[in-house]
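Researcher: Next entry in the queue.
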Amino acid sequence: MKDVRFASLLLSLRISVMRAGPAVCAALALLALGLALWAWLLPQRAAQQAVLAQPLPTPASLVRPPPPPTANENLAAFYQALGERRYAEQQVKTLFDLAAKTGLNLRQGEYKSGYDKASAVSTYQITLPVHGPYQNIWQFALQALAAMPFAALDEISFRRDAIGDPTVEARLRFTLYLKEQP
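Model: Structure for this entry, 182 residues:
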């Protein structure tokens, strides 16, 4: 008896589907799929809301900054960053090599050494007159500072003879800060 009732139910469902057409059937199938998906996602959404409702930790509890360096550590880092005085001539050669690499015409420079007794730091001032394109001069200055982290670019001046002239005459003054011994 159950088989007959089930067969008649399937037959009436089949007839209803034929009368409704494929568009209505597709819409009903999508509606049923949406309801099933909603019923499946609803518990997950509630779990997410519970997690989001919890208070966030304070930024101070997440990351602790390192303690600031002491004065002695700063002083040691300063002296460690200095170049060595015995290699000053090699640093001048580095400047000349960088000038040639960037396509600058580097003439004879002026050199002046100094010493500060209070800090026990030697200085070596190098004044270089260069001739070349403006972009190359800046490229040379930046490469020199990158190659020698103990150097400072104290002064740079430019001069152009005519507005249309592609080359510039520049004067760069570097100071190398050096220590006596490693």
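Model: Residues 7 and 13 are 10 Å apart (CA to CA).
Researcher: Noted, moving on.
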